[in-house]
Structure formats: C-alpha cells, structure tokens
Amino acid sequence: MKAGREVAVAGVGYSTVSRNGSLGVEQLAVTACHNALADAGLAGRDVDGLFAYSFGFDSPDCHYVQQALAIPDLAAYADIGAMGPSGLGGALAGVMAVSSSGCETALVFRAITQAAGGTGSFRGGGGAPMGAMGASLEMTVPFGYAPIIPAIAMMMQRRIDELGGAIEDYGHIAINARRWAAMNERAVMREPISMDDYLTSRILAEPLRLLDCDYPVSGACAAVLTTAERARDLRRPPVLVDAFAYASGLRADWIQGEDFMFGATRRCADRLWSRASVTARDVDVAELYDGFTHITISWLEALGFCGIGEAGAFIDEGRRIGPGGELPLNTHGGQLAAGRLHGLAHLVEAVSQLRGEGGERQVPGARVAVVTNGHGPQCGALVLRAE
Predict the structure, then answer these.
(1) Which CATH number characterizes residue 89's domain?
(2) What is the pLDDT of residues 87-137, one digit of tens each?
(3) Mean pLDDT throughout 254-282?
(4) Residue 148 has what pLDDT?
(5) pTM to 2 decimal places
(6) Minimal CA–CA distance to 154: which of 210, 213, 212, 205?
(7) Termini Cα distance of the chain
(8) Domains: count for the chain
(9) What distance in Å separates the CA atoms of residue 130 and residue 235, rounded to the nearest whole number?
(10) What is the pLDDT of residue 145?
(11) Is residue 69 domain-shared with residue 179, that is, in the same domain?
(12) Which residues pair with 246 in a beta bridge?
C-alpha cells in the first residue's frame, strides 16, 4: 500500500463448518476467533480492534465477542451491515484501522448459520412494509424483482445475449468448485458434478440454476491483522497486504447502477491494480467471490485475466482454473462447494495458500493472491503477497 503502516495477516481460523450444525452462531464466532488468535500465537488481551460483517440478525456483535475473548478494550471496532462488500468488509475495515494506527491488532470475523434462511430477502424496517427502501422497491417488486435471484438471472441472460458465450461457461465454474472441494476436508459439497448435472439442476429463474448458487452452511472464520513489523515476531509467516480497494459505482444500486452486468467490479479492479505493486500477470491464486457463478465470471474479466466477454474461452472448459491450471481459482471450493461463509473464507484460503499450508490442494510456489468479494454496488478486493 502507498500510505500508512504496512499491514499483514498474522493468523487465520475456522469453527466447524456443517450443513445443519447444532452449534449456536455465538459459539461458532468465538471458536473461529479463538483459533485465529491461536494460529498467530496471540490471546484476547493482545487485540484492540474488532470488525464483523453481518446482516444484523445472523451473527453476534463485536461486543459479545470482545467479552467472550476477554479483550480488555477496543480502540477501533465496527459491526458492518449488509451494504458492505460481503464478508471482506470486516477485513478491509481492519486493514484501514491498522494501517492508520487506529489500532495495533485487529480481529475480523464472519459467522452465520444455515438457519438464518433467506438473507437476500426483503425485511421491513421502521414500521414500513419495506423499510427505508420502500420508495424504490415499490417500482420493482410488483414486476417480480425480489433480491437477489431474479437480478442475477437477468445479468446472466444479458451477458449471453450481448457478449456471447454459453450457459456452459457458468457450469464450468460450478464444476471447478467441486474439483477443488474434493481436496478440502472442510468443504461440505465434495462430490464431483458433471456438466449434465449442472444443466439438469433446477432452474430458479431462467437461466439461473440451483448449481449456480452458493451453499448455506453453519460456520465461521476469522483472521488476525496487525502491522507487518509485529507479525514478523509472531508464530506464522506473515502474509502482506499489498493493496486494497472498494467500489460502489455510479448510481449505486443492484438494478439501476451504471453497469448492470458487472456492477462495480470493473471500477474496483481498476482501483486495486492502480494501488498494487503487482499486476494480474503476477497472480498465482485467485479467490474470487462466488455467491453466484455470474459474479465469479464478472471478476475474472474485471481483473483483466481475460478480455470482456472472453471468460468462456479463458476458462478453457475448466482446465485453466482447476488443479494444475495457470490460474487456480477458489482453491478451497469457494462458497459453491466449501460453503457460504460470505466471502471471508476466500481471504483465509488465500493466506493458507501463500503460507504453503494448502495440503493436497496447495498451489506450488504461490506468492501472490487476489481476493474479491461482492458484486453490484458492494465490491471490495485485496492483493496479498507472501513475504
């Protein structure tokens, strides 16, 4: 990064991850945070920053976790709501807090349960049927728009109509996730799938299929951020934050924004590379948000791994992004197969790869990783480097 103190990821951790877990979200969050601290060789008393992303009802807040971990005082903290760039929102806030001297050591986490249900559905607020967004939604809901399934389906259809390609391009993203997940003992969907499986999976909103969507789980993950100087004295090799970026795009909205197909991914990617010391050509591992296969393809093109409209050819029927390929993609199985931990697990996986701890799925010689989260008007990204 060009300003402030150099930041590093010093530890990462998970709770158990399961399809129908019986543990409460509070226990999941605290377990993941405890494991991340232990990974770094730290304890609660060493933390003075705490950041979490949630929808406000599916995760414990920062003060709960502070008390559970016996953190004495917080110099910087925030519970980031649904408008952040998914689970990476907490990590980005932590990076800024450490870089700016707002705190010395930040703990970031995302916890969620499968029982949280349809977190993309509408929730009323302030006594109004649709809350503060009612004026906007009343123009869209009567015509069938109910986030986020129909919006993604329309993006996919427009992409095929305007940029070419085929529905099979999306299928290769889903198949790739299972190939990597088969080597990840934590992944909940490890069984391989074929293109036939993808094409015959249930259509949710034409052309979006069930296997285009991430898989809800009960679990949590966490990361410890501190200065690079301090991280060098801790238990694990530090992974340095080379650059980060946010973007909302003009007319920030999921359906009325400036770029319906790409959301703010292209603005975010341009901003990221303008701040980084490396380029897309230097990336060894790409951990790109896959709440839906369309989002992953958007990031591939936005980041410049291929030209706009060229993702299908670039993927090469999965060969380029799978094990042994030149751009290993979502090496833990992503949200499509490892489970939906709202994107923060992409950061945890990137750190594991850059520390050489990927086990059977380790990418040989991985030194640079890019991590992205979100779509629409809610985009965030990081470039990480092994020291």
Answers:
(1) 3.40.47.10
(2) 899 999 999 999 999 999 999 999 999 877 555 444 444 444 444 445 566
(3) 94
(4) 85
(5) 0.93
(6) 205
(7) 14
(8) 2
(9) 48
(10) 63
(11) no
(12) 380
